[in-house]
Specification:
Layout: E1 3-7, H1 12-23, E2 27-32, E3 45-48, H2 54-61, E4 70-73, H3 81-84, H4 88-109, E5 113-119, H5 146-164, E6 168-174, E7 176-178, H6 191-201, E8 207-211, E9 217-222, H7 223-234, E10 241-244, E11 249-251, H8 252-263, E12 268-272, H9 286-289, H10 299-319
Parallel strand pairs: 1-2, 1-4, 2-3, 4-5, 5-6, 6-10, 7-9, 8-12
Antiparallel strand pairs: 9-11
Helix pairs in contact: 1-7, 2-4, 4-5, 6-8, 6-10, 8-10
The structure holds nicotinamide-adenine-dinucleotide (NAD).
Nicotinamide-adenine-dinucleotide binds next to helix 1, helix 4, strand 5 and strand 7.
């Protein structure tokens, strides 16, 4: 039986990845600084560890008789734009410690395959209408935020270790990912979850606040598609960073319209000041397409899965008298 370590198993994508690996027949150890917020982890073993500490990285990686066959590194201090643009020092400090200790020790322990979850935040800002950007164009680098700089450095570190050891490294640059069991309130939620929550809370015909003028262009990838991409990439021969994202690009206003359609509500948007991040995105998926991946969920299909889950969380919280 293959053994996998999932760091960040208490989080959104890590939680879904554990389920996938269990379905594929792996023995799975999940590690996180927190328990999963929304469900009981399906990992065979779940260790609560702070991976900023090197000793804890060693504990996470230690198994009887050899090493893990696969290590998936998804642990990170992260959140949506509101968090990324206010917690720069915390993000740089915490994530570089996690990745420095985990990458170094995975290589030292002789792990044969290592997955690193990077982000399209490594790229510079783009203007609407620009042609697709490819993975190699991230350098010369001009990420829009510190979170992106840390990801880029950690990518380079993982690649450097792969050259000095037998560890095969696979790196995905995720586009914005959404779905059930993701952060939906409290300040770390990303745009799709925040908009689902605001629309679930609004009356039909009511108003919701949106940061900026709603013209920023993004692609949103449904979590089931992302998990398939991670799994395929990990088992492929693709070296170097690989973009994974749904090819459907929409403005924030179009995201609002899609959620309204699924919710069966009409709402007006009120533009307020807030971090809006980059203007536009347009990334090549040619590398991930070359190994047979393609997003199966359109934005509407993914929101149809996500909105009911967030609406249920809103209702549960309000029944419990919480905001
Ligand atoms: P998440 O916040 O839900 O999961 C990250 C997990 O890491 C959390 O459960 C958190 O508790 C854990 N963690 C944080 N600090 C830790 C520490 N010191 N020790 C151990 N665990 C720690 O985020 P996610 O959306 O599941 O993202 C997973 C990975 O994918 C992250 O590396 C993230 O940067 C990357 N990513 C996500 C997106 C997205 O849209 N969700 C986009 C690009 C990249």
């Amino acid at each position: 039986m293959k053994r996998a370590l999932v760091n960040g198993a208490g989080g959104f994508i890590g939680g879904h990845l554990v389920k996938k690996l269990k379905k594929e027949g792996y023995w799975v150890r999940g590690v996180d600084i927190n328990q999963h917020q929304f469900s009981t982890s399906e990992a065979d073993e779940f260790l609560l560890l702070d991976l900023r500490e090197e000793e804890n990285c060693k504990k996470a990686l230690s198994v009887d008789h050899g090493t893990f066959d696969e290590v998936y590194q998804l642990a990170a201090d992260m959140g949506g734009l509101g968090f990324i643009h206010s917690a720069e020092t915390q993000i740089m400090h915490n994530n570089i410690l996690i990745n420095t200790h985990m990458t170094h020790n995975a290589a030292t322990f002789g792990v044969p395959r290592y997955f690193f979850s990077s982000s399209v935040c490594v790229y510079r800002d783009m203007q609407p209408g620009e042609p697709e950007m490819h993975e190699f164009e991230a350098i010369p680098a001009k990420p829009n935020n510190e979170y992106g700089w840390e990801k880029l450095y950690s990518e380079l570190m993982a690649i450097a270790y792969s050259k000095k050891s037998d560890m095969k490294v696979r790196i995905a640059r995720f586009q914005n990912c959404y779905g059930p069991e993701g952060e939906w309130h409290g300040g770390r939620e990303k745009a799709p979850a925040a908009i689902c929550r605001k629309i679930a809370e609004a009356n039909d015909g009511g108003e919701i606040e949106v940061w900026g003028d709603g013209s920023a262009i993004r692609s949103y990838t449904y979590v089931a598609d992302m998990i398939e991409g991670i799994y395929l990439l990990m088992h492929s021969d693709l070296e170097g960073p690989v973009n994974i994202g749904c090819p459907q690009y929409v403005s924030v206003n179009e995201l609002v319209e899609t959620v309204c359609e699924i919710a069966g509500k009409n709402v007006h948007t009120k533009s307020i000041d807030g971090p809006v991040g980059v203007h536009s995105r347009n990334f090549s998926n040619a590398r991930i397409y070359s190994i047979g991946w393609k997003a199966k969920y359109s934005l509407k299909d993914g929101i149809a899965e996500t909105y009911p889950w967030i609406k249920a969380q809103v209702e549960k919280n309000s029944a419990a008298g919480r905001k």
